[in-house]
Each structure stands twice: as C-alpha cells, then as structure tokens.
Write a structure and sequence with these properties.
Blueprint (H helix, E strand, L loop, with lengths): L1 H23 L12 E6 L2 E2 L4 E7 L6 E5 L2 E3 L1 E4 L5 E5 L7 E7 L2 E11 L15 E5 L3 E3 L13 E6 L5 E3 L4 E4 L3 E11 L2 E12 L3 E7 L4 E7 L2 E4 L7 E7 L2 E6 L2 E9 L2 E6 L7 E10 L2 E10 L2 E4 L1
Parallel strand pairs: 2-9, 10-16
Antiparallel strand pairs: 1-3, 3-7, 4-5, 4-8, 6-7, 8-9, 11-14, 12-15, 13-14, 15-16, 17-18, 18-19, 20-21, 21-22, 22-23, 24-25, 25-26
C-alpha cells in the first residue's frame, strides 16, 4: 500500500509540474488583428543622431527592438494611438531597410533609409552684442551674428519672451514698448542642426513731450521723443497733440478728434474719433486698457460744448 501511495503522489506531482509549465508558457501569439506593420518613414534620410518616425500600425515600445540596415537603433518612444514609433539613427548605421521586432515578430519597411554624412558646423551663435539698453518707442536692429558665414544654409529666427516690453519682427528689428526687462531668443537652423542663444534687453522710459509747432502756415501736432521731434499731424491743416499715455497721443486734426498710435518712430497710425461735419472736436486724454483705447474730450456743435 505504501508503494501505491508513493506512486500516486509522483503522478499528481508530475501533473502539477506540467500544468505549471503550461501556465508559464501561456502567451498570446500575434494575430492578423494585432500584427504591427510599417507603412512609411519620416524622414527617409538623415545623419547619425537624426530622429526617424516609423509610421504604421500596432506599435509598442515594450518587448520591441528596431534596426536600420541591420544595425540596432534606440527606440525613444511611441505615440498614444500606436501609429508612430520613434528611433534615432545609430552610430555605424548604413543604408538599408528599417525593421521593427515586437514579441519576436519582425517586419521591415519597403523603403531604404539613406544614412547621410553628418555636416559639421559652428558649436554656438556668436553675437556682436548680447546686452542692449533701449528707451521706450525706440527701434534698433538685432546685433550682428558674427559667425553667420560659418553656417550651411542657415535660417535665422528671433522671438521675444516678453512682448509687452519689447517685440522683434521677422527682419530682426527690436522695438521697445515700455520700461522693463526682456529677452530676445535667437535660433539658427542649418544643415548641421539647431543652435540658440539670447539677447538681454533693458528698456527705460523715454521722455515724451507733446504739443504743436508752427510750419509757417499751420500749427501741426508733434511729439518730442527724447528731444527728437516726430511730426504727427498733416502739415496742410491745423492740428495739436494734447496729451500722451504710453504709445497713444490724444489731440485733434482739422475739426476731428483723434488719437495717434505710435508703433515706433517710423510707423504712426491716426485713429479718427469723430467724422467731418459733426462739429469741432478734440481729444484731451487717452488710456490704453488691454485691447481697448479710451479717449476723453469734447465736441463743439451748435454753440454747445459736449463731452465725448
């Protein structure tokens, strides 16, 4: 009886081992529904270190490897809908198809990825100046990039991180708007990659005086910016500037109340507040609140003076 019991125990133990082994080996093989596929590459060429987007379906970065022409590449990520897998061109890679292996299933692209030569370029952007002092309403050009000739096919961009203090246009002209600190970010994209640097800008308030001057025929509205005269009015009619607030000047031209918007010394827009034929009007003060410009003054009509 003892032998029979011992034999039965061995049989039961063996059965448990077989069941356990089956459970350990239980994995879901890829099916046509969850099989991954490569449909495109972006870009289709690039140097070592270039990020490549593998476009397709059912991608994951778990239990996954990738290669370019047989050389293993690092997978850097996958998008949320599993249609893009991101890799970098590895050192030693040569032209060839890109393969992706997930859970032992390998697929490869129909296109050949061309590994291009890495183009050497400057390691930094060199500027003639990196610190600028400006006054409000002043416009100057960004400092010269002294090593621009060393870049291969450069594309230069400028951007202000504090546009309420200073702005920069696509041509690299910086305009100071109000007192404060700002940074102008300079970036250069070229065949060798992208480089960035910054320009520190300190803006002080300008000294502004408004009024009019006699041109021999008419009194003409003017603004004096740090003692430099800027003519606001049309010199063929009477006008006057009554007050200034930031970049806005209140006054009149002809018989119309108006506000002059000074974008910079060379760009001034007149905003008419009243039309011809409604009587004489004049704006006496102006404030700028957000996107709104609010002026106060009077309209003289039918021998009655009315506030605006």
């Amino acid at each position: 009886m003892k032998k029979i019991a011992y034999f039965a125990s061995l049989v039961i133990l063996a059965g448990l081992v077989v069941v356990a082994c089956k459970k350990d080996d239980d994995s879901t093989p890829p099916t046509e529904e969850n099989k991954h596929a490569i449909t495109d590459l972006d870009p289709k060429e690039g140097p070592v270190g270039q990020e490549v987007v593998i476009i397709g379906t059912n991608f994951t970065d778990q239990n996954a490897t990738a290669a370019i022409g047989g050389t293993a590449a690092v997978i850097t990520g996958v998008n949320t809908d599993k249609t893009e897998l991101y890799i970098e061109v590895p050192n030693g890679a040569t032209d060839g198809k890109i393969s992706v292996t997930i859970d032992g299933l390998r697929v490869e692209s129909t296109q050949i990825f061309d590994v291009t030569e890495t183009i050497a370029g400057p390691e930094s952007i060199e500027l003639a100046e990196t610190d600028l002092a400006m006054r409000s309403l002043e416009t100057i050009s960004v400092p010269e990039i002294t090593n621009i000739a060393d870049f291969d096919n450069p594309m230069v961009q400028w951007e202000s991180n504090t546009p309420e203090t200073a702005v920069v246009d696509n041509d690299g002209n910086i305009t100071a708007l109000q007192a404060g600190e700002a940074q102008i970010e300079v970036s250069i994209n070229s065949a060798s990659g992208e480089l960035n640097t910054t320009i520190e800008v300190t803006v002080e308030e300008s000294i502004l005086v408004v009024g009019s001057f006699d041109n021999g025929n008419y009194d003409v509205a003017s603004l004096w910016l740090n003692e430099e005269q800027i003519v606001l009015g049309d010199e063929t009619d009477y006008s006057n500037a009554a007050s200034v607030n930031g970049r806005y000047v209140a006054g009149y031209e002809g018989n119309r109340a108006c506000v002059w918007h000074i974008k910079n010394k060379g760009e001034i827009n007149r905003i008419d507040l009243t039309a011809d034929g409604v009587g004489y009007a004049e704006a006496k003060s102006v404030v700028n609140i957000g996107d709104d410009v609010i002026a106060a003054g009077f309209i003289y009509k039918d021998e009655n003076e009315n506030s605006m």
